[in-house]
Amino acid sequence: TAWTLDVTKDTLDVTAHGATSRSNVGGLISGEGSAELIYDNAGNSDYLSFVEDILTTGDAGDALFELFPDSSASSKKLAFSGIITSAEYGATLGETQLINISFQTTGAITSDI
To answer: pLDDT tens across 41-82, in order?
Structure first.
């Protein structure tokens, strides 16, 4: 129902010896964020393995994320593989059940925005 993604890029100092001003280039890119998921008890095995990823040790970062910034433009998205680093499960009787997760990206983040 909601998500955030913070992307950062390291910078590398490439200043020439004797220069009077620093020069930098972009380096490695990483991201982390959170998402609020609606619990789906329909038995979809892909969904269940995704939300249970927090219980996996030695995780290879195989949770596939597609984050859509706008519900009216389904072709626009951010996509990446990630590792779920935390999950908060809870329920209120008679209400929609939500799962809040935090994640770390692994590999490239692609954008079709």
So the answer is: 676 677 777 777 888 888 888 889 999 988 766 678 999 999
pTM over 0.90: no
CB atoms within 10 A of CB 94: 5
Give the number of other CB atoms < 10 A from CB of residue 101: 22
Please answer whether residues 84 and 74 qualify as being in contact, where contact means their C-beta atoms are separated by less than 8 angstroms.
Answer: no
3-class DSSP state of 54:
helix
Provide the sign of the torsion angle of the four alpha carbons 33, 38, 44, 48, taken in this order.
positive
Tokens of residue 98, six digits: 């939500």
Q: Which of 12, 29, 9 is nearest to 80 (CA)?
A: 29
112 CB-near residues (< 8 Å, 6+ apart): 75, 76, 77, 78, 79
N residues, the chain: 113
pLDDT given at position 44: 66
Confidence of residue 94 (pLDDT cuts 50, 70, 90): confident
